[in-house]
Structures are given as structure tokens and as C-alpha cells.
Structures
1.
Amino acid sequence: MNGAHFHLVVNHLPIIFPMAGIIVLLVGFFTQSEAVKRTSYLLFIIGAISAGVAMASGEGAEEVVEKIGGIAENFIHRHEEAAELFAILSYILGGLSLASLWASWKQKPFAAAASVIVLIFAFVVLFFAKQTGTTGGEIRHTEIRDGSNAPANDGSSSEKEHDD
């Protein structure tokens, strides 16, 4: 398994965990179950850890993909920039979730407010997850690019795009 393969295996996890965490946290709100809310916090924490793994595997993936003909460097750069911001936000969400897990466990008076903050921040993280996933997909999937995302003409791209 090369660096690109490993990155493809793990890169969806930091997107899936926050999605699942939001659903579970909403269920926790509706059922008024602290145990369910705690489960969502654990999902967000695991999501932050998986973001670290995806970031660590990104350089290896970049080395492999740069050797493939027809790949424009600007797509890799845009994805890398989006991924760095998304990872930082994921780490913050993991930290907020850890604090909220502690507050819930210790039955602190601010635990309910902390869960609302985590939920709101999780939606912010999910927005940036979408941006990161899209920019990553655009590296190899020309069918998801819009006209404004055409590759830079660096002379190395043999790929021609047509508007239909």
C-alpha cells in the first residue's frame, strides 16, 4: 500500500465522524440522554484523531500523485490549504468535546451550554469538511470541477476539459 492508497483509506474518516457525531448529539438532545451526548463527544474526539492521521498521510499521497501525468499542482495546493484549516478546526472540536465529556461526566452546571457549543461548532467543522473533501476530489475527478476550477496551464497537463 503506497502513501496515496493509505490516504484514500483514511481521508473519509474525519468527514464521517463529525457527521455521525452531529446525528448522535441531536438524538441526545431529543432524548435528553447524557449517555448519548457523551457518545457523540467520543465520536468527535475520534474524528479529531482521524484528522491527524489523514494529515500525516497527505504528504505521502502528494508525493505519489505528483508523479501522475495530468495532475495540476494548484489542485493539490488548494486541497492542502483546505485540509490544514479543517484539521485545526477538527482538533478544536475534539478539545471542546473532551471538555464537554468531562463536564457531562462531572455534572457541571455548564454541561448543557457546552453541548450546544459543541453542536454549533460541529456544523462549522462539517462545512470545512465538505470544502476539504471537494478540493481533494477535484485533484483526480474532473467531473466534479466547475469551470472556475480549471487547472493552471503549466504545460504538464495533457488533459483537455470540454464544457458540455
Note: Residues 99 and 114 are 8 Å apart (CA to CA).
2.
Amino acid sequence: MQYCIPGLKTRIKTMSNLKLGWAGLGNMGNPMVSNLLKVGFPVTVYNRTREKEKEVVEAGATSAASLQQMAIDNDMVLVMVSDDNAAKEIFTGDNGLLSGEVSGKLFINVSTVSPETSKILEQACQKQGAQFLEAPVSGSVKPAQDRMLIILVGGKEENYQKAKPVFDALGKLSMLVGPVGAGSAAKLAINYFLGVTLQGLAETVLFAQANGVKVEDMLTIVNEGACGSGITKTKSPAIQKEEFPAAFALKHLTKDLRLAKEQGIQTPLSTPIYDSFKQAQDKGLGDQDVMAIYSFLK
């Protein structure tokens, strides 16, 4: 993919002294760091499993000696980890990001966590004289690779503007949706919609198949009609092949549905949708793609 982002390289050039740190690499973190490197940002990375740093270090990133040192040495640090506990540990643990002198730094949590955890992280940063944004992303591995993520930001306007060139290098759209907590709530909301959509797609195809309609025919009906969407089209080949390598692991969506329930969602579908994905995870499908809900229901 060509990186023709209007004005971005000019903005990065004017911010050439800005040094970025990135904590947490994996299916999403690696392509996101690669995109930052491609447009010219200097990036220092840290991952607990050092082997996962190899790809981006070979692409030009620098490996940090520790989380503490990375926070001290860089102006802006982004964090992408799997859950609330991991995020809290990276920020506030012994030798974590906030364990050194970090006054004036900007920390950005791009992990999907609860609004409450985001507020806790903001308070922890403020106690150390640092600033904080939450910026969970909507999209999975392919959008991350293609710089097509949507970035849902919560925090102060001035911090958002400071970070916007970074967000522009990572996604097709970033939105400041409110104060810290609002970004996390927006991410839980869109992932709830994802869960409802995938459950509905799986149930639809299985119902049609049970009544004599071919799987591929039903998927064509869905995708060529008003019910079709980007996600139904993306997941259709996996259903046809009944192969579900993880672009977005089912266990992560299950976690997000749980967080939405803990945040207070009480809509009629919220409990059965969560229960369905939780049962699929308990049956050993957690590391497969979210569309493996089809296998569970079948």
C-alpha cells in the first residue's frame, strides 16, 4: 500500500524531534508500529516477550531496555495490550511506565479497556505530571496493516491535537468523542454491535442451511442485499471454508462483551450474545477468529 497521507510527512518533519515509544506488540501492534516507521516516526518498542519485537526492530525500531527507560527517553508512549489488568501493570507496576521521571510526557492507551480503567490510568498519569489519552481502535489485523483503523479518542483537545499526526499514520479516521472514558465506551459499543452482527450472520446461514439453502447462496443473498456490510463480506470466506484463523480473537470480543455488561448494558440481546461467545470460548474456540462463533453454533 502506498502511504500518500496529505500533509502527514510535512507535519512529521516539523515534529522531527518527537520520539515515540510503543509497549505491547502482537497481531495488531506490529503492523501499527510498522506504519509509524514507514512515514518517518522514530519508534522505540518494548514487549515482555522480546521475540515479538524482532519484526519491527528489523524494520527500524529501537528496542528499549525497560518500560521505565522507554517512558523516560520518549515524548509520547503508546500502549497496546490485551486487557485491563495488563494495562494497569504496564503503567503502574514496579519499573512500569510511570515509575520514573515522566513529567510532561503524553501516554496513549490504545488497548480496549473499561471506561473505569481509562480514568484510573489518567489519574495515575496526572499524579506524575504526565498527560493521558485513551485511543482504542476499531478494526482488526488487515485494517491495521492497511492504515484503515478508526481511532476512538477520549481526553483533552490539546492532547488530541498533539497526537493527531500519530493517529493519522495509524488509521483512516480519528475522532475525539469526549473526555477520558468516552473513547472506551465507544469501543465497547461498536464491539457489541460486532458481536450482534456476527451472531446474526452465523444464525442466519445455519437456519438457511438447515432448510435446504446452500451456504454460499445464503451468503450471496446477505452480501448483495441491504443486510450486507463490510464485516459480513470479510467473514464470508471463513464461513465457506469453515476455517477461522484469528484476525480478532474470539476471546477478546468475549472480554469486550463482558466489559459492556459491567458498564451497564441491559438491552434484550446483551445477555444471550455474551453467553453465546462465552460458551464458545469455554469450548476452546477463544484463540480462533470471532467468526468461529459459527462453528460453536453449528
Note: The two ends are 37 Å apart (CA to CA).
3.
Amino acid sequence: MSRIGKQPVKLPAGVTVTVGSDNVVTVKGPKGELKESIDRDITVTVNDGQVTFTRPTDQIRHRAMHGLYRALIANLVKGVTEGFKKELELVGVGYKAANTGNLLDLALGYSHNIIFEVPKELKVTTVTEKGQNPKITIEGTDKQLLGQVAAKLRSLRKPEPYKGKGVKYSDEVLRRKAGKAAGK
């Protein structure tokens, strides 16, 4: 058995999970509602505050999906109760971030500013303190969408290994390289 797949997902107070036809799981909670389509081979049962997952056989495909769908539903439950948050940091001289609603205006050292539209499901805030790098905070209930948007923002100017300039996650540790002068 999958060690992750056989663990039940415990439902906190105020969260309801319903399994619809064609295996679509809907999770409703205080922060909203999320849906996930689950493979027809995996059986999802909801009883007395727990969601359990069972697979029909020990095929590699079934074993792989068993733990995957359990983890996805656990993320949905956490999303509608607590929510998810990612923080990005802009490292570099002249790098700036400002937002008006869900439009993000980034100055990342290019000849032009980059206007990035964040999906309406996510909430974005920017903070610029004196002596600190500008920070972008993205919050939302959908972990997959949040990670995808954060990765897209990071890809606009990836951190380079010599000076560390670029857009990085605030908890990311960059591996730095020695420059040309270190070779002598």
C-alpha cells in the first residue's frame, strides 16, 4: 500500500467534501470552494469526518495515483481552511514591484516595465521598505495555481549565480559561484 494513500484526510470543522458523479470531488470551507477531478479507478469515500482512498489493484499506475490523489485532496482541504502563501523577493539595484489590484508592475532591469496580470483567485501584495529588497506576497486557496504563478514570476528574471540578482523565493537558498578573480 502507498504510505501516503492509505492515510485518511481528516476534515476540520466547517469543511464539507462531496464526491459527485464522474468522480469530481468538491471541497467547501470557510475560504471558498475547490474542485478536483479524480481518476475513475480510485474510490473516494467520505465518512465521519474523514476522506479515504482505495485502489483496485497493485498495478504501478494505480499505486502512483493512490498517493497522488490523497495528497491533492489534502491540499484542497488545507486551502479552504488556512490558505497558501508564497513570498518572492526582488534582489538587484533598481528592481521595483508595485501592484494595483491584481495587476503587478515590475521593473526588473529590462528596458521596459513588465505588467503581469495575476489571476483573480489569488491576492497579491507588494512591500518596499527602505534598505530592504522589494517583496511580493501571493495568497490563495489553490496551491497548484499559486505555485504556477510564483514560478512564472520567478522565470521573468531568474537569480543568477554570481551576484544573486533576480526574482527569488524568500526562503530559497542560492548557490553562489566564485567570479573570475578567484581563479588567480
Note: The chain has a mean pLDDT of 92.
4.
Amino acid sequence: MTASVFDSLVGQSHITEILQGAVVASRTNAESQEMTHAWIFTGPPGSGRSSAASAFAAALICPNGGCGTCQECRSALTGGHPDVEIIRTEGLSIKIDEVRELLTRTSWAPSMGGWRVVVMEDADRMTESAANALLKAIEEPGARTVWLLCAPTLHDILPTIRSRCRHLQLRTPSTQDVTAVLENRDGISPVMADFAARVSQGHIGRARYIATNEHVRSNRAQIMKLPLQLSSIAAAFQAAQTLVDLATQEANASSEERDEKETAALAEAYGKGATGRGMATGGSKAIKELEKEQKSRATRMVRDSLDGALLDIATFYRDVMMVQAGATDSIINIDMTDQITAYAHKTPAHATVKKVNAIMEARTNLSHNAAPLLTIEALMCRLA
């Protein structure tokens, strides 16, 4: 079978077919039902929204329609192609100044390929003013510019933007599909691949992260024990502190070394360390701006880590509901089958449903910038 950039899309054959048709239609240089200038990719976390958008971008500029092996494909997928702009935000939001700067760059004609393609991986994080600025560009698109926006759901995008885009809905890959990818692509053992695929609930990136990182698996095991420890209000507060501490430690471990390197590189760029000289004018201000961005990134990383932990805890109560419904063959956390079964027998089913709803409510509150510790404390008291 011929290699393709779309081979990386796991369990998304319906999306691959549509995108391949669009690539063929793009060769006619005319907008049609198959090919349009603006697209929205939605789907649950881990479904491969940004992977699908990046693959489509590579295929549009590839002379062979997305072979996956040529220089154009490789550079597009890694963000190194001059005609492919991949926008990733590590902060809490995408602000209007960032979008205005982006619009200036995308107004240029393609330098190499037939298209200039913009992939915005977190379009749902645009502020309202940033989204309104982007709307004008999508309403009056450049002749050779294609916008690819990624978001969890269609409702995370401004209605006026989504009405001007073609929508593609990705689905969660099956456990079998994720297991196969981990085994065949990453060389992970069948047992570990199956475990990671199940507990990640189809999130390919998280599955690989779990399968290849023993520390992450250890943290997850600690988190999964928390529901069994909620015997009192005092225990609930202790569990909340433990959860926030674990999330903070994981975020700090990922960001501290990176922050130091970024700060040192920026200071060096402004002349720090040069013989007889301090930093050039503007250096201190640039470092303060960088530190502000790093703080925003760290805040988001803690919230993302907490959200992942809450999803893990939700799988515990989900498994409890499965036992209560008599569907024991679909348990996710099979390593905890005995504890889950015992818990299910002493808890009414309606109470389990309320606990899952409480977790989802806490996730929503965190996404709205609620104080993490207070939010988790309130949740643990409800679960207790």
C-alpha cells in the first residue's frame, strides 16, 4: 500500500476519505464542495484533531498529494515549511495581538507550494476579540490561503466563524486501534499497550505517555486509590491536597528546565555574558514578558494535569456503574476489579451517577479558571 501522511490518523477512515478528496479537488484551483478555504476539526481529546489538520496541510502542499516521504511533507508536519503555519498555544488563551500578527504573515502569497496553510491547534482558546479579528480574515480569505481550526466541539468556536467553515468530526479511536499503534509504531509490549490504551480511553498521545513513563503510571496508581480513601471530610481535604500536589509536581517537572533554557537563551540574545557588556536595551522588558508567558504556561499545565487526573478518577466511578449494571466485561481498570466490585456493592447506583456528574462539573469549573485547590476540595467533599 502506498505511504501517505494520513496513515497517522488512527480509526478515522471517514475523515481520511474526505481529506483525500479535498486534496484532489484543490488541484483544480477552484473552491468546490470538496475543497474550501476554511475547515474546523473537532473531536474528543486524543482523537487526533491536530494530527488530521497537519496531515491535510502537508497533503495540500505536497506535489504528490501527501506522500509522507518527500521534503515538503516532512517539513510541513514538523512546522518547518514556509507555507505552513502551525499555531500552538501553551498559555491560557490566544490573544488578539497574536492573531493580528498571524494575519499579517498569512496575507503573503505562498513562497513554494500552491497554498499557504494555517493550522490553529487550540482555536477554542481564542479570546472573543481574537476570534473577531480572525473572522474578518475568514470572511475575506486570501486566494491561496487555507485555515484549519481545531477545537474539542463545534460550540467552542464563535458561531460566525463556524458558519463559514466546513466541519469534520473525529471520533475516539477504539482500544484495539490504539493498542495496535503502540505495538507496531512504538514497539511497546502487548500487555503494556493494552493497559495504556484502556486507561487512556482512546487518547493516543496519553496512551504512549503512560506506556513509556513509569513515574506517570505510579502517579496514576496513587490517584486511583483516592476514591477508596474518602472516609471523612478530613480525608476529603487530604485527598484534594494530594491531587493538587501531584498535578503541580508533574507540571513543574515539565516546565522548570525548559523555563531556565528559554530565559538563558533570551538573555544571551540580548548580549548578557558578553565581555564588558550587560544586556542591550529592551532585554529586561523582554525577559519579564517571557516570564509572564512561562507563568501562564505553567498555570495551564497544572490545570491540564488536574483535568487528566479527574478523568482518571471518573473511570473508577464509571467502572463501578458497569459492575452495578452487570457489565463487568467492560471494566477499564481491571487491575482494581476487586476494589471496584466491593465499592459497587456498598454504594447505590444513583449515588455513583451523582459522583460522575460532580467530577464533570469540577472539570467545567476548572476550565473557567476556578481556583484549583478550592475546586478539588469541594469535589472531594461531594465524593465523600
Note: Residues 283-324 form the longest helix (42 residues).
